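Quick start: what a row looks like.
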Amino acid sequence: MSAKTKIKVLECIRQGEIGGGESHLLSIAENLDRTKFDLVVLSFTDGPMIERLKERGVETHIVFSKLPFDIPKWPKVKKILREQQIDIVHTHGSRACSNVMIASKSLMIPVIYTIHGWSFHSDQNFFVRNARIWAEKILTSKADINISVSNSNRQTGINHITGFKSIVIYNGINQKKFSPYQSYKDIRHALGISPNAILVSFIARVTTHKQPLVLIRAFKKSLSNTSNLHLLIVGEGDQKQEAIRLAEDLELANKVTFQPFRQDVPEILAASDLFVLPSLWEGFSIGLIEAMSMGKAVIATNVDGTKEVIQNNVNGMLIEPGNIQALAESITRLANDKLLRQDLGQNALITVQEQFNSAVMTRKIEDLYIDLYERKKFHKVTH
């Protein structure tokens, strides 16, 4: 494509903080073929992701909102779409989708909806869950293409939404950035963590569905068997203060280090011995794949997309969600068996190399953009 015929894509995300969907968007930005596509990003909050995009020369816009279906903000979204002459809108997550769908459709701009994880879950009360299923049904039916980030993610949609259809494209990461063969600065020294400690890392939003409190309680149990453990919790969220209080109540102040969201995730993973993700659900965790790409032994829960990636005791360990005892036993086992950590980590690295490369992921998404753009042009010609 010539410069004059490049497809202009608006990537939409709910927030500017770094999380799974945001890392996915950054991977697209880093790998998108700029000879074929112009890229613009719309976020509904500011944050470090926006700064990283700006550093890469990506035009960004912020329409502040923390609400789904925030109707007063839709005219601002429509103005951006019109002024930027957007050809395709690609939304990441339900909140971004709910706040751009009407504006996009009013301008006859096709919409792609990537479902990084459904907004409805089994632990919600009846009315909340059914309201969210209804909202997801509207969004998925209005989108021109739905992308599921795992087969489990897709099957959940089929089970709950009549007529749901989607294409499965697994998340991928930049394996040059997340590589065990690079040199990294000494994060342990900077954080005051002993070089001899077995470092267990949790890098995620500190929210209920990621289960940080379960991890802290399991970690306490593990310490009774392995005293040289240290837990590093990196992230922010509505359970952060509760997690800090729990660590203090369990007399873990010297054994648990809390950090905000950080940009040096490869350095943190390089310093870690284990990575733990005890979520209640996951669409498909990019953080998990990043840890595996760094050759780390991982412990995760037997949920959604995670169980499509982890083979228990082959390239990681799987436990049931909420099982504190099983998590404690898994941490203890890996902490005391360096050879097992190395074997699981090496197999994890091979898994990512073979299946979850960001460049391959982006090529598949580019094909969807081109197909949708050509269909849009054909529709205009025939009407």
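That is the whole record. The chain has 16 helices and 13 strands. The longest helix spans residues 358-382.
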